[in-house]
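Box 4.2: Ligand-aware structure prediction
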Amino acid sequence: MRHDESLPATPRRPLRLAAAAALLCLGLAGCGDGDGPVRGQAGPTATGAATPAPSAPAPSSAVPTPVKSPSRTASPSASVSRTPAAPTGPLSGKTVVIDPGHNPTNHLHTAEINRQVDIGTGHKACDTTGTATNGGYAEAEFTLDVAHRLRKLLRAEGADVVLTYDRDRAFGPCVDERARIGNREHADAVVSIHADGSAAGNRGFHVILPAAVRGGGADTSKIVEPSRDLGTRIAGLFVRSTGSSPSNYVGGKTGLDVRKDLGGLNLSTVPKVFIECGNMRDPKDAALLTDAGWRQKAAQGIADGISSYLKG
Ligand code: ZN
């Protein structure tokens, strides 16, 4: 609303490809996380009884806050698309990792993306193809488009922004690698962008928060609370920016869900949430998701939520 709704995708930036990017996930213990078929809140740790997303405080002054040292140990095991921050801004010194869900060419690599990877509490496919609207607009294209818009907004506030991928690989990353990229970057916040593929009539967005899980390589004990703060702010400001309602089929209309079956959350050691921006299989939601102006509002809402969280 506050921005040019016909804003084109951010100009492509040079990618910094690590040497072994072409290795993808082969031979590793695991790869990425789709939104997966399981959509329950099973288990005592799934405390989906979230309070309604509040309108997050909007600090008017840039109060100096401790800045985490973004010591970057460039791992050769992954490629990322890194965009330098603006020289100054309220988010200077902060690192945000944006994870565009799926990959538009995953469907050409079914064997690779179906490989099981370790998500800490079990095993799951490396990645999934994602969904699409009935008209054929792929979720993976949607997620990249929103990611580019979000990157531009966050950069303008001075954040250092890293994308987990940007059309620089044939499939994936696998879900575990998506998590590792955020960890390696010591990200102050990570958001995985998605749109859902549920039944027609199911509408609205929801933000997925990590459950408290521990097992294998997963231990979310340190990120559950900050992730809830991040996700709650995003939900509240997503409503404000898009006018969309919280999901009418997940999360009890709070706009928040808690899951322990997503490797991208289970394996994260930094605050992280997913957002399902709408339901691609519902015609009314699809009309929004395919509209560039709406996607700009969606990116703005997510950016506002991240910014609110990072400013504290
Ligand atoms: Zn998805």
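In the box above, the bound molecule is zinc ion. The helical segments are 110-114, 139-156, 175-184, 224-242, 263-266, 283-289, 292-311.
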